[in-house]
Amino acid sequence: xxxxxxxxATLLKVRETVRxxxxxxxxxxxxxxxxxxxxxxxxxxELDALRSAYRQAAGPGTVDVDRLVTTQRxxxxxxxxxxxxxxxxxxxxxxxxxxxxxxxxxxxxxxVLEKLRERQTEHHAQEEDHRERKxxxxxxxxxLRAEEEP
Length: 150
Known about the structure:
By secondary structure, the chain is mainly α. The protein has a single domain, classed as Orthogonal Bundle (Helix Hairpins), CATH 1.10.287. It is built from two helices and no strands. The protein is rod-shaped. The two termini are 34 Å apart.
C-alpha cells in the first residue's frame, strides 16, 4: 500500500506556526491586561488607605493642614493615574479583541487544511482498498483459469 503524502503539508505547517504566533500574541496582551488590573487594584487600595488617613487627619482635635494638603495632592495624583490606567486598559481591550479575532481566523485556516488532509487521506485509503481488491480479484481469476486448464 502506497503511503499517503499531503501535498499541502508545508502550507499547513506555516498556518499552524501563524496560529501559534497569534495565540502567543493574545496571551501576551492578556498578561499585560492582568498586570494593569493588578496595578489598578493597588491604586484602589492606596486610595482607600489615603481616604482613611484623610478622615483621621480631618477628625476632631488639632488639624495638620500640611498633612491634609499633601494627602489631597497625592489623592489627585492617584486619581489621575487611575484614569490613565483606565484609558490604557480600554485600548488594550480593543487590542485583545483584535488579537482574539486574528487567532480565530488562524484557527479556521488551520482547520480547513486539516479537514482537506483528512478527506484526502480517506480518499487515498479508499483508492488503495479498491486497487487491492482489484488485484485480489485478478489473482483469483488467474487461479481459477489455472485450475480449469489441465
